[in-house]
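From: lab user (bench 3)
To: helpdesk
Subject: output format question, protein + adenosine monophosphate

Hello, I'm new to running complex predictions and I'm not sure whether the block I got back is the full result or only part of it. Here's what I submitted:
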Amino acid sequence: MEDCIFCKIAVKETQAEIVYEDEQFIVFPDSNPKAPFHVLLIPKKHIPSLREVGEDDMELMGRLLLTAQKVAQENHLKGYKLAMHVGKEGGQEVDHLHLHLLAG
Ligand code: AMP
Ligand code: ZN
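Helpdesk reply: Thanks, we reran it on our side. This is the complete output you should expect:
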């Protein structure tokens, strides 16, 4: 996905401070944080939004939540909020599926 900013972060073409990374996911701070702790979790695979998620992605989506749990634990967050915008009408600005993890 040539013009996808989050794909560029995933392949390190665009720099981001990496909070967590494994084979499937990369986590980095939101550039316009809405809370003292605000990171974005993205699958390295380009999926435009939750609308395009299918049965084949069930494991990936489960792992996305476990990754949020892991990042929260690693950062000693006592409580946190997860949010996902879906589609322009749902407030989604970047068309690469991502989960907001906010705390503080
Ligand atoms: P959403 O409305 O769910 O699509 O949110 C997209 C989020 O990505 C916004 O909170 C932006 O501040 C954030 N964002 C956009 N570009 C970047 C970037 N290059 N690095 C980090 N965060 C970004
Ligand atoms: Zn992408």
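A quick orientation on your result: The mean pLDDT is 97. Let us know if anything else is unclear.
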